[in-house]
Specification:
The protein is built from one helix and five strands, in the order E-E-E-E-E-H. It has about 90 residues and is mainly beta. The protein is globular and about 40 Å long.
Length: about 90
Amino acid sequence: MRLTTIPDDALWPGSERHVLMPPGGTLDSEVAPAEMLVDEVTVDGVSAPRFLARFVLEDGDLEKLREGGTVWLSLYGMVVPFDINVLDKDGQQ
């Protein structure tokens, strides 16, 4: 899987596009900058920012998963995952 840019039509009211830089804030890092949508969510009465990144499958990914492969999410800094969703080509679950 690879991180991709976020198309304009994927934004919704209240969301903003941001680019998160790798540790050290330089473009020559082994960790690529990540374009994300950011909004505010409330869960159990507590508001917090939510960060959403968009990924696409690369050649061979489905085969690896069918053969028992796994998906790992590496985080650098304070971005904490809430959930991972697979959407169809129209952006629906």
